[in-house]
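job 3f2a | input accepted
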Amino acid sequence: MQSDILVKLLNQTWSSPVFGDSFINVNQKAVIAQIKQITNGVKNDLTKIIGMGMPELTQDQVNEIVGQIVPKTVSFCPALTAGEITDTKKLQAAATAIGVMYWGDQTMDRGDMSMPFALKRLGGQNVDVPAEIRYLVEARLEALRQIEAQIAFFAKSEDVEIVLSCFVEQVLANEVKLHELSLRYLRAQNKDKFITSNAKEIARLMVVDAGFPSVSSSLYAIYRHENARLIPLSQLYADMQITTLLQICNAVVRAADEFGDWKMDRGHDAKWGIFVINLFNQANHALINEFLSLAEIKPTLQITDAFLNFAENREKNGAFLMKVFFDHIKEHIKNLPEHTAKKNEHYILLCKRVLEIGKVNELGDIELSEK
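job 3f2a | predicted structure (371 res):
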């Protein structure tokens, strides 16, 4: 990602396009300094981890993958903590963990045959691995396990298990399931019928593996080292208002991600990966209704038509739907019960910040990548 694109991303995020007040008095100098401080550390960490996980690649090939991932992860944590965190080593560990998670998902999406087995094993599944790729699966699995080591460094002991589950159980384990559904979709004779028959599961997977809690929980866990008043994640997530909020946040950022990546997810360009079911590209009544239900949005004729006719005017229909989703989460947070809003004020602020960067992510990976 070129520096001008990075500056654009940071400025758009800090302008708080959704809420208007997610970032106040951002210490921009501190953020830029932290980005510079952790860049080499994250690069070195990921080079070692990905090199371990992909022994069949040359060093140049590993470096190329690392070069694609580092710009997308290094700025993430400093940007969202806005210069408020002083421990850059913990920000570096969080960025590395997110980078490894991204690597696992990206490698699978680009057609790697070993990664799905490794991700299943990481999630605790006892799967039979073909003998010819067993050593690759073991290597990928060992690399993926470094996520836990990074989390154990930046999170307090009582928070590690919850943060780890956000990365592994919610995101990576379910991404494998969505990946397999996408492959089955390609083999289906009646593709619309396939989407209809599997709409409930597809929508569930899209929402639960969107990754919102992996970011918000990681950031909150780091803040807990510097703010003794913040309650443990186990207590935080015991509030049903918070878990409902997270489900809606997941749906909103997933919709933004799907919109931004509609072109990439068609699988027409091998550089960006193989085909993946996309909420906009494969929309039908059943999938739309299931997804909106999880987002707690009441379907209307205008919303449904915007999804079904997305290809006819992607810019107009996409902009309308993004407004629907982000207006909805803005209203939901505004109307949270006072007890929840006060008790969990800091976590809700972090959620707002992650939503802000989710809004910017409408641009999609291709637009945000290095040209």
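job 3f2a | The mean pLDDT is 93.
job 3f2a | closed
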